């Protein structure tokens, strides 16, 4: 098992000639966490990942792993603690699956590269593909091989750029399960993706990037900040006649067919009073839940506010 590690990005800025790609970005990755980096095309996500992986130097700011800076001297050793899946699989088409993996096992200086390749072929259920050339593989299988290559050396920190892009639902589910397994192994995982449903399922924290960081927090905290806390009550009958029974303490009530959406300061403490008032008024309550707008709504609202 690899040692767990914390990665800290401090005030990362990167210019390409006159173009500012990333400006003053700071955050940390901690063991046992899935951190999602979101943003529109051209927002600087891939540039940020490349700086974190030590593939390009920031124009200013730095990257530290366990408080050691990613410098020219320390870079090769620190990069060995990182696994980086790029958006394009980047396999050598004329080599077989086994040969692709063996090259990287040797590049990482692993003590028994052939055995390591055997183990990772088994882990990713691609042993039967060992002797197939990479050019013959489907997109989903190429992605699986690329993930196997990323994790060959059991990195502490895993950076994933669009890991499920273009995959069929079954392959995408397998990748999500792998990401959750990495989290359970106490690795630090950064996921950059446009798949907001995927992020909603698995991410512990979310950062929205548009050259600069627009927001960074847990999904629930971002929802609460933008939309407030709300209780959604579903009734067995039309809800229109029951809104007035909640009294002046609940003055933000939205009615839709058989449901009431009620703005509150705290869901856990206010929901019981809402249910009591409705039942006392003759309502048949079917369900009571905390109303959570989809992460897509949160993301789009953040970008709209940033533009304003």
Strand content: 25-35%
The count of β-strands is 14
Main β-sheet: number of strands, strand sense, barrel status? 6 strands, mixed
Q: Can you tell me the CATH architecture of the largest domain?
A: 3-Layer(aba) Sandwich
* Strand-pairing-aware structural class: alpha/beta
Structure keywords:
308 residues, alpha/beta, Rossmann fold, Alpha-Beta Plaits, 2 domains, 6-stranded mixed beta sheet, 4-stranded antiparallel beta sheet, 10 helices
What is the secondary structure topology, with strand pairs?
Elements: E1 7-16, E2 19-29, E3 33-38, H1 45-52, E4 60-65, E5 68-69, H2 75-79, E6 82-85, H3 97-107, H4 113-123, H5 139-150, E7 157-161, H6 169-184, E8 188-192, H7 196-202, E9 205-210, E10 212-217, H8 219-227, E11 229-235, E12 253-256, E13 259-264, H9 267-280, E14 285-290, H10 295-307
Parallel strand pairs: 3-8, 3-9, 6-7, 7-8
Antiparallel strand pairs: 1-2, 1-4, 4-5, 9-10, 11-13, 11-14, 12-13
Kindly describe this structure.
With about 300 residues, this protein is an alpha/beta fold. The protein folds into two domains: about 5-215, P-loop containing nucleotide triphosphate hydrolases (Rossmann fold), CATH 3.40.50; about 230-295, Alpha-Beta Plaits. It is built from ten helices and 14 strands. It has a six-stranded mixed β-sheet, sandwiched between helices. The chain has a four-stranded antiparallel β-sheet with strand order 2-1-4-5, covered by helices on one side. Helix 3 packs across helix 4 and helix 8 packs across helix 10 (about 295-305). The protein is elongated, with a radius of gyration of 24 Å. The mean pLDDT is about 90.
């Amino acid at each position: 098992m690899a040692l767990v590690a914390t990665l800290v990005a401090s005030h990362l800025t990167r210019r390409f000639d006159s173009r500012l790609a990333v400006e003053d970005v700071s955050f940390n990755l901690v063991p046992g966490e899935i951190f999602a980096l979101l943003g529109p095309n051209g927002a600087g996500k891939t540039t940020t990942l490349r700086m974190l992986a030590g593939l390009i130097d920031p124009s200013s700011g730095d990257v530290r792993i366990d408080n050691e800076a990613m410098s020219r001297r320390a870079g090769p050793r620190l990069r060995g603690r990182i696994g980086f899946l790029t958006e394009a699989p980047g396999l050598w088409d004329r080599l077989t699956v086994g040969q692709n993996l063996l090259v990287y096992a040797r590049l990482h200086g692993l003590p028994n590269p052939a055995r390591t390749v055997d183990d990772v072929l088994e882990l990713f259920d691609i042993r039967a593909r060992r002797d197939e050339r990479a050019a013959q593989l489907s997109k989903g299988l190429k992605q699986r091989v690329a993930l196997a290559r990323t994790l060959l050396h059991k990195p502490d920190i895993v950076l994933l750029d669009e890991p499920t892009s273009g995959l069929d639902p079954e392959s995408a589910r397998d990748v999500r399960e792998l990401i959750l397994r990495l989290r359970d192994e106490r690795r630090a995982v950064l996921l950059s993706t446009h798949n907001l449903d995927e992020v909603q399922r698995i991410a512990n924290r979310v950062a929205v990037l548009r050259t600069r960081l627009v927001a960074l927090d847990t999904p629930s905290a971002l929802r609460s900040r933008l939309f407030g806390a709300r209780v959604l009550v579903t009734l067995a009958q039309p809800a229109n006649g029951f809104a007035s029974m909640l009294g002046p303490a609940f003055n933000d009530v939205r009615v839709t067919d058989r449901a009431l959406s009620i703005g509150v300061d705290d869901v856990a403490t206010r929901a019981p009073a809402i249910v009591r008032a409705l039942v006392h008024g003759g309502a048949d309550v079917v369900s009571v839940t905390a109303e959570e707008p989809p992460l897509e709504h949160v993301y789009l609202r953040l970008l709209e506010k940033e533009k304003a």
